[in-house]
Amino acid sequence: xxxxxxxxxxxxxxxxxxxxxxxxxxxxxxxxxxxxxxxxxxxxxxxxxxxxxxxxxxxxxxxxxxxxxxxxxxxxxxxxxxxxxxxxxxxxxxxxxxxxxxxxxxxxxxxxxxx
Length: 115
Hints:
Blueprint: H1 2-25, H2 28-66, E1 73-78, H3 82-98, E2 103-108, H4 111-114
Parallel strand pairs: 1-2
Helix pairs in contact: 1-2
């Protein structure tokens, strides 16, 4: 339903662009050429958007396969130096000792230091 509404709105805006171009130029042919050029230029963005959506769908499917359904999942983002990694490691160890079993994943920009 969402995509139908989105397509309807896009078509409505495109027809408005056609009418505006027709009013500005006074020629239906020039307005049609303008709209076709507009669509050609924007089709690259649509293609990249669809590829990104497919890529994200694959990532979500992979994450769903990794996560055990019986345990909670915790994501931790570490921003800082080696000392922050040590503190976070100690914190996660202590947290795991005091709560129910969980799965965690650490996100960081310096993977060498995190290792």
